[in-house]
Design brief:
heterodimer, A: 255 residues, Rossmann fold, Arc Repressor Mutant, subunit A, 10 helices, 12 strands, 44% helix, disordered N terminus, B: 490 residues, Beta-Lactamase, 3 domains, five-stranded mixed β-sheet
């Protein structure tokens, strides 16, 4: 994802935490596109209470117009809209805008999740949802967007007591190096670089292996198992290399 | 049996043969003429009469009797070689002979006719028996019409038979024509038409085309019987279908009632709790900072999740029922599936211990990740719900043989009476009263639906101190290419 909009503020603050504080204080603008008045009412109330600036749209076209007129910082999108499919809204938004899109839908089938992510959504949350969960997802999406904007591709990622050095291809836990194979390292690096975001099987396979191997989920299963054995305390009950059933994987970074 | 119309020539031959027999008898008797007297000849001449009657029927019999009378008179009554009679007692003998011969041939002729009629009737009865047996096997209108047409075609040696059944209610019309190769409509009117009459009125008809003018009375009777039996069979099949439909409707009604009563109970219980908590909070009866407030908020959240699970279960069940739950198979790691299921059960498992024993060398399995995860969530969830707090639930898996893996989910819950063990996988089936435990009675039947869609088997088993759910999953699946080497590091 590349964004051409100049956001000088972000460029000056490569550090994540201070950037988020800044975004929050500047009153982050959220656009909610959902046709359920109850959901709009609840989200508007709660998000406003949390100092977000909230705009709502109950139709797809309306949402697209609003997004163009007053570009938001994050978009919350329902899939079932009266005038057009949410996937289409997502695809059309992605033609010109790179702000995070979080899909919020009652559709809980994995096919829908994968499709939404493929169409450019950053995250997917099923209704009914907990508000804390939604706020967490918004935070992750904003942080990720800020990273991309700042192009702050740090060569060292630190999370879960691990220190992943992308330049040197090493992983250390409390200073001690953990031996990973080339593929294991590529897999870990890709997941960690997109921390807290769901990555679909296809995306991971295409990136770590080859686009031609995108359907070989079994490669991923085998390597994920190896990786968990080397990195997780209890590989059977992983704490940060998280399976998203039927969709993909998520690297959960501790805050 | 077909009775050929007798040709005159054929008749003539029979009569000539009768006469020939009399001639032969005369010759034989004449050879012994010296030693025989007229009385012996009387008896001798009865032989051709009897033989002719038995062989060719009454007509040739009578002719043979008359011929014998004249031959007897000519050759054996004095004066011989004339038809004149001198002695009065000879006249008496002749008269007696003629009477006996005619009487005898008539008696024999009648017996023969009766025998032939009896054979005919037996044949007819057999044919009818075969017909009704064949008819009884048929369930559809089409098959019944086919059977009737076949029987009529064979019985009457007809050129063509058509059986038409009219549409009635929602049963469509049917027509069968035999022989099938001459499908074009015949260019003449049918020779005979027999209506198919049932209690509901005219249902159709049998049309028969013959190469002759009409049917014999016996054949006509047979055709009417075909029509009656055919009509009865049609009525039976219609009634059977109506009954089957009524039964399906009734069963689906029962199912709906069961569903409604279960669902309304399960929906209302959490709704009642939520409503009570929310109104309690709004009324100001609860102190804003109190412990009660937190309790009520927790109730609302838990009950909302319960409702969400219920809706999910109902959706899954309807997918299974509609047959659209097709597994999206991929090669998956069972340990990972169980791990994902356990991650979802964190909240439910907080008062229990969970033990997972899966060998490290268990191969990848060709299953739908999400569906099998659902099976584990339901089975482990069920185990946690019914077993006492503080006990351990255990998941075991092993390779049972080269072609399947076996999985067990064991708990320390109460055992289930043997006769209920199979039924716990039925929809809405509960061992305990519905009021005592929450749930829809759908979880286990969803497991069964998923495992069977994967080609596996699921069953429950009582243990010494608990209950085990067992299931198998095949390792080789037709539509899945075998697992190849995993690409990656050398």
């Amino acid at each position: 994802m590349k964004d051409d909009r100049p956001l000088a503020v972000h460029l000056h603050f490569p550090c994540h935490s201070s950037l988020i504080i800044l975004t929050m204080t500047q009153s982050t603008h959220v656009l909610v596109i959902d046709d359920e008045p109850q959901i709009l009412r609840a989200l508007k109330t709660i998000l406003t209470e949390r100092h977000f600036q909230v705009t709502t749209a109950s139709r797809g076209e309306e949402g697209l117009t609003l997004a163009a007129a007053h570009p938001p910082d994050v978009i919350i999108l329902d899939l079932s809209l009266p005038d057009m499919d949410g996937f289409e809204v997502c695809a059309r938004l992605r033609e010109w805008i790179s702000v995070p899109i979080i899909v919020l839908s009652v559709r809980d089938h994995e096919r829908d999740k994968v499709m939404a992510l493929d169409k450019g959504a950053d995250d997917y949350l099923t209704k009914p949802f907990g508000i804390e969960e939604l706020l967490a997802r918004i935070r992750v999406a904003l942080r990720h967007a800020a990273q991309v904007q700042a192009q702050s591709k740090s060569t060292i990622i630190q999370a879960n007591g691990l220190e992943i050095n992308l330049a040197e291809h090493t992983v250390k836990r409390s200073g001690e190096e953990i031996k990973l194979t080339v593929t294991e390292f590529k897999l870990l690096a890709y997941l960690a670089a997109h921390a807290d975001r769901v990555l679909t099987h296809q995306a991971i396979l295409s990136h770590v292996w080859d686009p031609a191997d995108a359907d070989h989920v079994e490669y991923l299963r085998v390597y994920m198992r190896q990786l968990r054995k080397k990195l997780e305390t209890d590989p059977d009950q992983p704490q940060f290399l998280i399976t998203e059933p039927g969709v993909g994987y998520r690297f959960l970074a501790d805050e | 049996m077909r009775r050929w119309p007798r040709s005159p020539l054929f008749n003539l031959i029979e009569y000539l043969l009768a006469l020939l027999l009399v001639g032969l008898t005369t010759g034989v008797l004449h050879l012994f003429g010296g030693v025989l007297d007229a009385q012996i000849a009387t008896v001798g001449y009865l032989l051709p009469v009897v033989a002719s009657t038995l062989l060719w029927g009454l007509g040739p019999g009578i002719v043979s009797a008359l011929a014998a009378f004249f031959a007897f008179n000519y050759y054996f009554i004095e004066p011989r070689f004339t038809l004149a009679v001198q002695r009065p007692q000879d006249l008496l003998v002749l008269a007696a002979f003629l009477a006996i011969a005619v009487l005898l041939s008539q008696l024999l002729g009648r017996t023969r006719a009766a025998l032939s009629a009896a054979q005919q009737r037996e044949h007819e009865a057999l044919r009818l028996y075969d017909f009704s047996t064949a008819l009884a096997r048929q369930q559809t209108q089409q098959a019944i019409a086919q059977t009737v047409a076949q029987a009529a075609l064979e019985s009457f040696h007809a050129d063509r038979v058509e059986v038409l059944v009219e549409a009635s209610g929602d049963f469509p019309s049917t027509s069968v024509s035999l022989p099938p190769d001459r499908s074009s409509a015949p260019d003449r009117l049918p020779t005979m038409i027999a209506p198919l009459l049932t209690a509901r009125g005219l249902q159709g008809e049998i049309r028969v085309w013959l190469d002759r003018e009409t049917l014999t009375p016996a054949e006509d009777r047979l055709l009417k019987t075909f029509a009656t039996q055919g009509a009865l069979a049609l009525e039976r099949s219609q009634l059977a279908r109506s009954a089957a439909r009524a039964q399906v409707a009734e069963e689906s009604d029962q199912l709906k009632t069961a569903l409604l009563s279960s669902v309304s109970h399960e929906l209302r219980t959490p709704l009642a709790a939520i409503k009570a908590a929310v109104t309690g909070l709004r009324s100001g009866a609860v102190d804003r900072q109190s412990f009660a407030r937190d309790e009520m908020l927790a109730t609302i959240e838990e009950e909302t999740d319960q409702l969400n699970t219920l809706v999910g279960n109902l959706l899954d069940m309807s997918r299974i029922e509609a047959g659209v739950l097709k597994p999206q198979r991929a090669w998956n790691d069972l340990t990972e599936i169980v791990g994902a299921a356990v991650a979802r059960l964190k909240q439910a498992a907080r008062h229990h211990r969970l033990e997972i024993v899966i060998p490290d060398d268990l191969p990848l399995i060709p299953v739908d990740f999400v569906q099998i995860q659902q099976v584990f969530i339901n089975l482990i969830g069920n185990s946690l719900k019914y077993s006492p707090e503080g006990t351990t639930a255990r998941v075991e898996a092993k390779r049972r043989d080269p072609s399947a893996i076996a999985v067990r989910v064991i708990n320390h819950g109460p055992s289930i009476p043997e006769e209920h063990l199979d039924r716990i996988f039925d929809k809405f089936y509960r061992v305990t009263a519905a009021d005592r435990v929450t749930g829809t009675g759908l979880g286990l039947s969803i497991c069964k639906g998923i495992i069977e869609a994967h080609g596996g088997r699921i069953w429950a088993e009582n243990l010494a101190d608990g209950l085990a759910f067992n299931f198998t999953l095949p390792l080789h699946v037709k539509d899945m290419p075998p697992l190849k080497n995993v690409k990656g590091d050398e």
